[in-house]
Amino acid sequence: MKRVPKPVFFIVALLILFLTYTSVFGIKGKNGDNTTTYLKGVGDIRWGIDINGGVEATFSPATENKATKEQLDSAESIIKLRLVNNNITDYEVYTDYNQDRIIVRFPWKSDEKTFDPQSAIDELSATALVTFREGKEYTTQTTGSDGQAVYKTPKGTTASNIILQGSDVKSAKPELTQDEQTGQSVYQIALQMSDSGTEKFAEATSRLKGQTISIWMDDTMISWPSVDEEIPDGNCVITSPNGFTAVEASSLANKINAGALPFKLTTSGLNTINPTLGRSSLSAMKLAGIIAFGLIVLFMIFIFRFQGLVAVISLLGQIGLMFAAVSGYFPFFNSFTMTLPGIAGIILSIGMGVDANIITATRIKEELWTGKTLSVAIASGDKNSFSAIFDGNVTTAIVAVILMLVFGPTNILSWIFGVSTTGSIYSFGYTLLIGIIANFVFAVFTTRLMTKSISRFGFARNKWLYGGPKE
Asked: Are residues 28 and 59 part of one domain?
């Protein structure tokens, strides 16, 4: 068995306890009357419609003419952008091209105070305004859910000098091209101006050669390309220094097209759910979870003794990591709407974590009763239990991924199951997958690391402490 230094047990245990505590309670600070959140906890989780209520609406074009697919895609893009700009990073948006409608479903924010559904709907359904402006002067800078900078509110020359409006752009399309320097395929956005836009753009590009023309959607700057040369014919491309990905190019093109949307979206259906729905269920599940975890602690320590104590510490880490992945604790993980099925996914994955620890502890216990030394029994138990843990977790992970793919935002079978069911099932698949990943991290890695470390102490060398015979 590879020797693990003695202090490793205490270092890993302290890190796990820190993660668990901060992921549950978060870390906040006071600056006068303002509260600053440094690390998000359970209190920052945005609960789903089934627990905290929310808004569900159907948007339709305020026009008798049938909308095109491109127009509906543009409208969907702007709705998503407005959701993100309002710190609602988890949502469901579905476009029904046959019925000319967009179905939007999103929960209240975790810090919602007014619970005014009409205000939320009006903000999403307002027509977007895209403008091309001179320079890129802005008033405020924030950080988006993806960790990237977001620039808001034009000022100075940028605020006063509008070169084009969205209606001056005839089309914006992503296209694949080859970088002349690297030879790699990259995406760019091809713009075609209307007759009025061509004249305005020719004058601006002639005057601003070598400078920046920024593109704004309402109050947010979405791109800031530089002018390389005068463009007299109204056809140009927007490129990125590192090249756009297919998703980035498509997203930016949709946003530009959204500014030229010829209709306003109106609410053809509005459904608000009582914010107290599911609160009693949440309280019951919380109490049941605390009682169940307490019973698990007693069971693991009574049956497996030291190995059970190590398993309990690892389970705390698994629970902490799952909460952190949902609340937005990590900057690279967006906050996630927690629904009752999502909680069920957490509970199921915790059960799998307990099972993984029991399998390993039982294998070690069996090896000890065959007369093997403690070090050999731990090494053999770890080796013999891995395949059973791996097979069980991988098969469940495959199911979780399938649930997320089928019932997520890209649901490919919504025509069978219906769009109204996708959010709950996707939430279950997400938390289950996160739990399985956490299970591998803690039940497989940290449990074994701490066991090898603590077994090197003289007081912890007795086989009985690991479920073996008394010495």
From this structure: no
Task: Quote the tokens at residue 101.
Answer: 């409608």
Summarize pLDDT for 194-211 with one digit per residue, the tens: 888 899 999 999 999 989
Number of domains in the chain: 3
CATH number at 109 reads 3.30.70.3400
DSSP states of 352-409 as a string? HHHHHHHHHHHHHHHHHHTT--HHHHHHHHHHHHHHHHHHHHHHHHHHHHHHHHHHST
φ, ψ (nearest 5 deg) of residue 191: -105, 140
Q: How far apart are CA 451 and CA 109, in angstroms?
A: 42
| Angle 71-74-79 from CA coordinates, rounded to 5° | 130
In whole angstroms, give the CA distance from residue 150 to residue 221: 7
Alpha-carbon gap, residue 79 to 59, rounded angstroms: 10
pLDDT surpassing 80 at residue 117:
no
3-state secondary structure of 222: strand
Residue 145: per-residue pLDDT: 58
For 386-430, what is each residue's pLDDT tens digit? 888 988 889 999 988 888 777 665 555 555 554 444 556 777 888
The Cα–Cα gap between 213 and 308 comes to 63
- Residues with Cβ within 8 Å of 265's Cβ and at least 6 positions away in sequence, in order, are 59, 60, 61, 62, 75, 102, 124, 125, 126, 127
**Is the domain of 32 the same as that of 146?**
no
- CA 238 from centroid of its chain's CA atoms: 28
User: Are 106 and 236 in the same domain?
Assistant: no
Burial of 283 (0-12, 13-18, 19+ CB in 10 A): exposed
* Residue 323 lies in domain: 7-43+276-466
Which token pair is 446?
A: 């940290």
Tell me the mean pLDDT in the region 166-186.
79
* 419 DSSP 8-state letter: G
**Strands, E, within 15-137: which ranges?**
27-31, 34-39, 54-61, 92-96, 101-107, 130-134
List the CATH number of the domain containing 438: 1.20.1640.10
